[in-house]
Design a protein that fits this description.
354 residues, alpha/beta, Rossmann fold, 2 domains, binds 1,4-dihydronicotinamide adenine dinucleotide, binds phenylalanine
Length: 354
């Protein structure tokens, strides 16, 4: 996609900055503030081009708008991306601190139009650093007054999504099902434990072999990263990166259902059409992975306690059943159905203070 195409975006705001000293480029994209101030995490990654970083931030911001709307949370959608000059693990601590400080300055200039939080390659400790410069930060560590990591609750929500989807797909309970988890990070690792406790047979894959050590001890089957899309399983759970299912992958997968934490699992609309034609039930990511948003926004904006966060997270399965009903009634993909439900719910919600 050309830079012109990337900038011809229907979101509300794009902010970019490049810092020659650290080599980092910064992008903030606010997709919508219709339901409230925009919120979405900070992703740190290497990108082949600045246009690629802008495109990713825009798509991720759009997914946050849908996630907030379908979840009934009074926030809009935004996202920020820090395009790194080297892999995150190779960036020295002082340079990383400086990168975070610059990012925080950019966020602060928006004066609350955009609130950040943790995402791929950023955690609560990083949120604490951002908070030294700006107040518009979710997910600080608990001893700094924040809600801490969102990963545990995201995993709980994906687990609820998995149970509802398995049942709707005619697979019954998770007991005895084969579940392939791609990415054993903060969310995927916890999801693996929950699925194993429910009696599932785990197949796991990660590009970081250190993450697989406990899985080996646990007796999980290890799948090579490039064999994921050709390995048969009952449920495929992408919990690593987005865009893992394009048309070719959708045509190849041997699974009954897809339920994962990754944002923007489908590379394009066509992939969703193919999954539908092939009878593979896809749980739209922005519904299934909303547990993190319930945790952060629920605790830090709405003042929810543990029980209230859990009640909302447990309802993710019910929301998916509504999505599947719309998909069947309208003969459309589950992704299109979830967008309809998000629009319907947004039409009935009030912005904070509204
Ligand atoms: P993480 O960075 O802790 O874990 C990701 C894991 O995926 C790492 O172990 C990494 O080595 C692995 N990985 C990367 N590329 C891979 C590949 N091609 N094949 C197999 N493994 C690969 O990230 P986290 O927090 O667990 O998030 C996972 C996904 O869920 C991300 O896409 C994130 O945007 C999404 N998500 C996370 C939420 C949260 O609360 N942490 C909330 C909603 C979505
Ligand atoms: N990055 C996570 C997500 O995609 C958690 C998050 C939610 C961060 C809301 C900020 C705001 O859902």
């Amino acid at each position: 996609m050309s830079l012109d195409d990337v900038l011809r975006w229907d979101g509300e705001l794009t902010v970019t900055r490049h810092d020659p000293e650290t080599g980092a480029s910064f992008v903030i994209r606010v997709d919508s503030t219709r339901l409230g101030q925009a919120a979405g995490g900070t992703r740190a990654a290497q990108y082949p081009s600045l246009a690629g970083a802008l495109e990713d931030a825009g798509k991720l911001a759009g997914a946050m708008t849908l996630k907030m709307a379908v979840s009934g949370l009074p926030m809009g959608g935004g996202k920020s991306v820090i395009a790194l000059p080297a892999p995150r693990k190779d960036i020295a601590p002082e340079r990383w601190q400086r990168i975070l400080q610059l990012h925080a300055e950019n966020i602060d200039r928006l004066n609350g139009t955009y609130w950040t939080g943790p995402d791929v390659n950023t955690d609560s400790a990083d949120m604490d650093v951002l908070n030294e410069t700006t107040e518009f930060v979710f997910g600080r560590s608990a001893d700094r007054g924040g809600a801490g990591s969102s990963a545990v609750n995201t995993a709980l929500g994906v687990f609820e999504a998995m149970k509802a989807t398995a049942s709707h797909a005619g697979l019954g309970s998770l007991d005895g099902l084969s579940i392939l988890i791609q990415g054993l990070g903060a969310v995927g690792g916890r999801l693996a434990t929950l699925a194993a406790e429910a009696g599932a047979r785990l197949l796991v894959s990660d590009t970081d072999f250190q993450r697989l050590s406990w899985a080996r001890e646990f007796g999980c089957t290890i799948v090579e990263p490039d064999a994921v899309s050709t390995t048969p399983c009952d449920i495929f759970a992408p919990c690593a990166v987005g865009g893992v299912i394009d048309s070719a992958t959708a045509a190849r997968l041997t699974t009954s259902a897809i339920v994962g934490a990754a944002n923007n699992i489908l590379a394009d609309e066509r992939a969703g059409d193919i999954l539908r034609q092939r009878g593979i039930l896809y749980a739209p990511d922005f519904v299934a992975n909303a547990g993190g948003a319930f945790h952060l926004v629920g605790r830090e904006v709405l003042g929810w306690d543990d029980d209230t966060v859990a009640q909302h997270t447990n309802r993710i399965g019910d929301t998916l059943i509504e999505v599947y009903a719309i998909s069947e009634a309208e003969d459309i993909t589950t992704d299109a159905a979830a967008r309809i439900l998000a629009r319907r719910r947004a039409a009935h919600s009030q912005p904070v203070g509204g």
